Amino acid sequence: MSIAPLTSNSSPNSLILIHRSIRRRNGIIFMAIPTSRSINSRSFSLPDLVFKIPRTSSKRSRNPLKFVSPVMEWQNCTAKMEVDIPASVAYKCYSDREAIPKWMPFISSVKVLEDNPTLSRWSLKYNAFGQDIEFSWLARNLQPTPNQKIHWRSLEGLPNRGVVRFYPKGPSSCLVELTVSYEVPPLLSPVASALQPLLERLLQRGLKSFATFAKKYQTA
Q1: Is residue 67 situated within a structural domain?
Q2: 152, 168, 150, 169: which is closest to 160 by C-alpha?
Q3: 199 and 116 belong to one structural domain
Q4: Which stretches make up the Coenzyme Q-binding protein COQ10 START domain (predicted)?
Q5: Tens digit of each residue's pLDDT, the chain (220 residues)
Q6: Does residue 66 sit within a domain?
Q7: Domain count along the chain
Q8: Structural domain of residue 160, as residue ranges?
Q9: Is there a single domain that holds both residue 118 and residue 210?
Q10: In this structure, are 152 and 207 located in the same domain?
Q11: Whose C-alpha in 70, 96, 149, 153 is 20 to 30 A from the C-alpha of 60?
């Protein structure tokens, strides 16, 4: 405990205070004590004269900061095209996954697993942004709607999912709509804003090639 003068004044009506500090574990309590006889100390209430300054702890926090992995960006790309083949033929042609590299420009290979035909291994190879881009993944085909919808999602490798829908436009034509969603790879994060329009153009080119390929597929 320590005592020291806080303020002083020569005026007869002034209040001369001393402070008394009492050290506690969680801080220091200061008490202002009137010493002038001309001031009635009873006019001061204890809350007015006592205040506390918390003591800051020098101990390190027991809960250190934890680094959280950044949320990766997902992008959605859609392309659509009307083709001069029935929806049933377009559906059957698109269901032939191992033939997709013949008309999709950036898919280099697709291999359906013999022991589980719902699974397939995909490889992507394409030159863009001044570098050769290569990715692979294992995908599972989900329950389809015959002649209407095919959809899938990746199980390992490049995270992606997608759906292709077939809308009949007449007895001999249909609208094919393809939507692909993917997680932007860290390698391509610096060009993420340019990646989406690039892939949409490639998907559109792919559907254009698909329209030609499906016509041959129909007559094969």
Answers
A1: no
A2: 152
A3: yes
A4: 83-210
A5: 444 444 444 444 434 334 444 444 444 444 444 444 444 444 444 444 444 444 544 455 455 444 344 557 999 999 999 999 999 999 999 999 999 999 999 999 999 999 999 999 999 999 999 999 999 999 999 999 999 999 999 999 999 999 999 999 999 999 999 999 999 999 899 999 999 999 999 999 999 999 999 998 877 6
A6: no
A7: 2
A8: 74-219
A9: yes
A10: yes
A11: 70
35 lies in some domain: yes
Compute how many other C-beta atoms are within 10 angstroms of the C-beta atom of residue 139: 22
Same domain? For 109 and 28 the reply is: no
Candidates 46, 59, 55; CA nearest to 22 is 55
Q: Are residues 85 and 31 part of one domain?
A: no
174 found inside a domain: yes
